[in-house]
Amino acid sequence: MDPARTPLGQMLLEEITPVVMVLSTPSVEETCLKNGLSFLQMLTPFCSFNNIDVPVRTASDQPYRIHKFKLRLFYGSNVRKPDLKVAEEQLMQVITESGEKVFSELCSDASKVNHEHASSEDRNTPSWFQFFNKELVRMASFSDHEAFDHPVACLLAVSSKDEHPVSRFIDLFNTNKLPSLLKDGAMDPKILKHYLLVHDNQDGSADRASKILTEMRNTFGSSDCVLLSINSSLDAPIKHQDNPWASQICDASSNQDLGCFLNIDDINEIKDLMQDLSSKHIIPNMEQKIRVLNQQVSATRKGFKNQIKNLWWRKGKEDGVDSLNGPTYNYNSIESQIRVLGDYAFMLRDYELALSNYRLISTDYKIDKAWKRYAGVQEMMGLTYFMLDQSRKEAEYCMENAFNTYLKLGLLGQQNATRCGLWWIEMLKARDLFKEAATVYFRICGEDILHSAVMLEQASYCYLLSKPSMSRKYGFHLVLSGEQYKKCDQIKHAIRTYRSALTVFRGTTWSYINDHVHFHIGQWYASLGMYEVAVKHMTEILACSHQSKTTQELFLSDFLQVVEKTGHTFEVTKLQLPVINISSLKVIFEDHRTFGSSSAVDTKEGLWHSLEEDMIPSFTAAKTNWLELQSKLISKKHNQSNVCVAGEAVKVNIEFINPLQITIPVSGVTLICKYSTSTDELTSDAKGSSVKTDNEVDHFRDTSSYNSSFLVSEVDFSLGGGETTLVQLSVTPKEVGTLEILGVRWKLSGTIVGFHNFELSHPKKNIVKGRRKAKQSPNEKFKFMVIKSIPKIQGSVQSLPGKAYAGDLRQLMLELRNPSEFPVKNLKMKISHPRFLIIGNQENVKLEFPGCLTKTTDSAQSGAHANPNVMSETVFSFPVDTSIQGETPLSWPLWFRAAVPGDISLYMSIYYEIEDISSVIRYRTLRLHYNVQVLPSLDVSFQISPSRLRIHDFLVRLDVINKTSSESFQVYQLSSVGHHWEISLLQPPDAIFPSQTLMAGQAISCFFTLKNSRRLSKLEHNISTMPLGSDVLLVPQCSQDLVYNTNNVPLVNFHYFERLQQKALHEDLGDLNTVDLVLIYRPLNSSISPGLPDPPHVITASTGPISWLVDGPQTLHHDFSASFCEINLKMRLYNSSDATAFVHIDTTDFDGSGEHVNSVNAVQSATPDNQAGWHDVTPVNEIKVTPNALETQQGKALLLESVSPYIWSGSSSTNIHLEPMSSAEIPLQICVFSPGTYDLSNYVLSWKLPSQGLGDSDETKQHSGKCQGYKYYLTVLQST
Amino acid sequence: MIVCVAVVGHQNNPLYIQSFTEADDALKLHHIVHCSLDVVDERVNNPKKSGPMLNETFLGLLYPIENYKVYGYLTNTKVKFILVTTDLDVKDADVRNTSFIVVLNGIYYQTSNERMAQFELV
């Protein structure tokens, strides 16, 4: 790469060029001012020559050509070190102006806080940096330690109007007025002078001027005197197409008038003048000077001898002057001359020569400790290396060395250090070492905050440009620089840098930084009075849950302040505070489905659907009805949109979350809705129209539309730190049409209005009750077709307990109201859990509970009971004449029984039809949902075993355990259901319940005998012949009056459902030998549950249809010495089934196997604990209900004793047919050979029933069985 | 003194930043840690430069800034541990051998209670 083409090269070629000092008289200036220019300004555009092609020969003999050249013109008064303060101010102005300019650009697109635009433009470094840097570099100009700013020539200009022009020339170059550089001896005052006579053509002809010129030529020599006539354009001002002066004077207003009197001839004349000056005077002059100096330097310094001498001489000088700046060097000192030689060579692009001289002088200065000069030379060496494109390392080393040396000088070297740094940076940049450049920028940052701000900003761009780009450092330095800008009140710059930094941090999770940046941008915008933008930035940080509480408070209070300053309620589309949990969004509306409570709403639609299946007319039928009736009104489109009824609220549940730790007040939370009267509108238009405009309009519309077509609810609440609140909002349409819910709006702290658009966040919508069309667009879900008002029944179940003990029986009341004027008809109801809840009769309303359950009550309604057909029909239809209207509610009794412990959800659905045929909705359902917690109360278990004493008798053991924690119960009554069972106590109740109560945790057992009173098959059940003894009171002193009738209304119904339930569990139901027992008990302190609990039913069976009894002696005396003993036994058989049974009895002799064939009967399977007192309680000890385990043990024990076996001596196998409900007797005989105790269970009884006909529901019924004989012990003693 | 320890996820998201100074310099440390990720990225993406460090998890001195030195440690799962210290004349080897282990242990114990939840995100 050609170094001259790099930015640094360009800069050097422009900045390190020969200086021409211009001295002019006031009249010259006056002449030029006619053109709006000063004399210097007029000449300046023509000072750079791009194609001059001058041969140059410096120290070497080989000439080379210079094509580009530039002169720098300065008025004599300006040839001095710039005043620091003025320069600073100028710099400040540069910054401020550029700040304004860039900021206004920024603001133009700030209106749309468009975050995307940032990427491309911002990567280009702002152009004003270059200008600023140039100004900074110029601050260090005209220093006495370097020679390239020293004027190489002086241009003296006198007007032809001036009196005595020649003497004026002499006056101008008066040593007293000369700049200090020339006066103090820092540079040679004998410089090239060029005399210029300026003639204004408007003042008349050039005669006088040429006369003066001749005079001048005589005085100063002919070659150095020139005449310049300007303002040749006499009348018409000239408009220059591309005005050469435009770039110099930034004041844009007078741009057109610049040089208005200068015609093309004038301009050409100026051009020629300057070209002549440079190529014919300045360059040759410099060449000559270089040669002269070079000779001198060679003579004094080159060569070994000179070097030794120089070294020795400098050593000696060392302990001389030791000022901070080192010794002062006069212009004719050899050091200065070398430096001048180097600089001249540099300016004439003889870099080799320059470098050798710089090197030469560098060591001298170092030894002399002339640090500033040393640094200056090092700096130039670096630049020369760069221009030579040699040894990059060397170049950078020199620059760094110079920079460090300048820095060491402190204030003195400040400007130079900056300049050196900037050049160094450019050098690094030219080599793509942006990262290194950035660190240099960082080092330039000195005391001056403003400068360091600019430097930091430039450093940040370096990071961005470096490869790979370091965007984080870019952001960081922008933030740093922004902070510095802020410190010097350059707010606009600060905003700019922060905004650029935002592009880095946006989208990252570095929220602390993000918050900081947004917050400050907001603050700064606010300080500029741009509140709208400020608010936009501040809203970004409101939901800063990660910040500390104080910071949150600060953010919020600042934000509210800014909002307040805007002076109106501010509206923000995506206010982060409070956060809306969109996934919690739920739209609840009632079309043909209405809900009694919110919990009913939450229940799954499928559950309701299955419940209502039987009640509602089939869907297709309904649809055809619709289409027939409403085909004109309802297009297919509408079938898909939701339907709601005018006057009935559509509710929306939304969760608001406060992410902060501080409390925020939220008020005026309402839905944003759109209403249109036409029902067809939503099909055609509105789709294409942009959502945005819609919303824009609607924000404002909703305030005005309160009165007309819909009503929205307003909610105020205050969210504590970290709280989440579920808010229910509602909108009630008043007229038929289309209603659309667009979003929600709320007011934060009463000043700022936030919106949330539902449409914008479609993906996870949770519409609960919407018809689940798969392809419903999100918008559709919030669109409702409002139909005209139809009746809506409200209903509730009165006094349903939330908590009940298992078995608790209560009477409840269902209340239905119809507030509307229109009648409804065809009411139906279905209940999900008939075990828990059944529907009573209208007459029950008047009944007193629980008295109505006792037997004394009028048996009138007991006749209406127990119609299983009614019960099996799960849908209950209210009587046809039932009408609900107006204020008076319809009450309907319900019976509740807590069947099993646990948490039970009861669902009820009430169906009704609307009499108004023209309505879109023909029917509606009211859905009620209640939760009941059922606690365990009594644990009841029964065991039934056949009695071995009487063939129709069974022994019932009842075990009751009170499972509650504190409740006491009174076990009141045990009843058997059905008519062929008699039950009686074995002991008086006093013996069982001495305290009459069952305390918490107490367990009790009692025994009953159960008698099968069923006689030979009477197929016509006579209900009126109610057998006595089917109920047993367990409370001693109660009269028979208070016996509860288990055949009464609710009990029998619950019994039915209980059976249904158990049927599913037990197969052998339907066997005739099952008995259902009902235990009635009641809580002692009836304050808890006044009703009487109904126990779990226990359905039991005997050993099958065949029961038998072995009858015979228990103890015998026999003289075995005489003979063996023959014993006759009888077996009585009874068939309790409806069919003739075939019974086969096999006696097997004792074979020692002891095999136990367990029949399928259910009784034995229940294994009770071998409780003490079991045998004592039973008065008849033949009844052996022994556990299986015990039985086998005993068998084994007998074996071990090696009891001599007995022999069945009768017929070993007997077959008989047993008629239904009849009994038979079979003789049995055994032979015993020795005294002992014998177990006569060695027989097997098998029975068989003829298989039932097809279509019988009891397919699973047991048709045959095999039973092992039960133990029967016979003791034979030796008779004496 | 170690001023700050940070754990940064593989997507350069901050998982945990803990400063050990009394001063309110959380933001500054956030910036420093954030910036040093540039250097981490550079080292990870330019294995040539790191040369023998290719398979090293210890990234060494990342970033000298102002009065701090920043050291990095990269796990196989691209989770970065960043350590900011004020010891300006500390040696790399020291940091490598002791500081990180000590600090990471420190974090482990310190965070075993409530902070562990955050760590599980790693």
TrEMBL record, chain A:
Residues 807-926 form the TPPC8 second Ig-like domain. GO terms for cellular component: TRAPPIII protein complex. Residues 1196-1243 form the TPPC8 C-terminal Ig-like domain. It holds the Pfam family TRAPPC-Trs85. InterPro entries: Ig_TPPC8_1st, Ig_TPPC8_2nd, Ig_TPPC8_C, TPR-like_helical_dom_sf, TRAPP_III_complex_Trs85. Residues 605-764 form the TPPC8 first Ig-like domain. It comes from the Eukaryota. PANTHER family: TRAFFICKING PROTEIN PARTICLE COMPLEX SUBUNIT 8, TRANSPORT PROTEIN TRAPP. This is Trafficking protein particle complex subunit 8. The lineage of its organism: Eukaryota, Viridiplantae, Streptophyta, Embryophyta, Tracheophyta.
From TrEMBL, chain B:
One of its GO terms (biological process) is endoplasmic reticulum to Golgi vesicle-mediated transport. InterPro entries: Longin-like_dom_sf (IPR011012), Sedlin (IPR006722), TRAPPC2L (IPR044760). Coiled coil: none annotated. GO terms for cellular component: cytoplasm. It comes from the Eukaryota. Belongs to the TRAPP small subunits family. Sedlin subfamily. PANTHER family: TRAFFICKING PROTEIN PARTICLE COMPLEX SUBUNIT 2. This is Trafficking protein particle complex subunit 2-like protein.
